[in-house]
Amino acid sequence: MTARIDAAFARCRAEKRAALVTYVMAGDPDPETSLKVLEALPRAGADIVEFGLPFTDPMADGPAIQAAGLRALKAGQDLAGTLALVRRFREGDADTPVVLMGYYNPIHTYGVARFLPDAREAGIDGLIVVDLPPEEDDELCLPAREHGLAFIRLATPTTDDKRLPAVLANTAGFVYYVSITGVTGTATPDFGKVAQAVSRITARTDLPVVVGFGVRTGAHAAAVAEGADGVVVGSALVDALARSLDAEGHAGEGTVEAVAGLVRELAGGVRGVTKG
Fold first, then answer.
1. pLDDT tens digits in sequence order for the chain, 276 residues long
2. Is 136 a catalytic residue?
3. Among the options 50, 118, 125, 239, which is catalytic?
4. Residue (of 144, 140, 142, 154) closest to 60 by Cα position
5. Residue 203: C-alpha distances to residues 103, 152, 182, 208, 211 (Å)
6. Which residue among the candidates 28, 39, 61, 118 is catalytic per the annotation?
7. 32 catalytically annotated
8. pTM of the predicted model, to two decimals?
């Protein structure tokens, strides 16, 4: 079920380093540029990519990702179009894991019974659906696993020892630890506390634990890589893309490189930390 994800982490362990997980919004600022950005991520050093599913009410996302979603929606991006982009990505990349990240409403509207086989056929490896708690596992999590898709759960600073077993119960692929309380891209985490939290989670699961929210630079990535199996960067990449756009929000010649250049910096930070 998690062959590509497992292989990515195995490769990173063999290289004695953490994995770099990068997030970009599907369709931002337009579908064709979004595909080029997606294709550039692994070449620049990303081990796993999270592809954001645009939604009109992204309650866990900060201003940068909210704006990216609005740009994508304005360009006509929807769930079917997102699957089509992943399908095209797979024509040139059969190995990089792709995790679709977003909210349940677009999937529910599309239809779970239709979505799961379509997602698998498109080449998606896993799902992060931030507004479906463990109590709703029958809704999507368990059916997703039956279709060979990893359902990746978020743990947060407020996930205590009583709650953690429920969070871990049906999680597959990896555990995503949210390093701060609040929305994405709004604060820098306390890296010492993050390492302690990761240790608490790894004591209770064999799954890799990746850390995201608040990582913006190669130095940040290196600090997180010291104590985590993977580092997730999203808002910083979305910001880099946004800064490359013209006054009308259109991509320019430097848009793909603006994202890829930051990914190379982040990859350098992650790869600069040797793990035992």
1. 689 999 999 999 999 999 999 999 999 999 999 999 999 999 999 999 999 999 988 777 778 899 999 999 999 999 999 999 999 999 999 999 999 999 999 999 999 999 999 999 999 999 999 999 999 999 999 999 999 999 999 999 889 999 999 999 999 999 999 987 554 545 566 777 888 889 999 999 999 999 998 889 999 999 999 999 999 999 999 999 999 999 999 999 999 999 999 999 999 999 999 997
2. no
3. 50
4. 154
5. 29, 18, 25, 11, 16
6. 61
7. no
8. 0.95
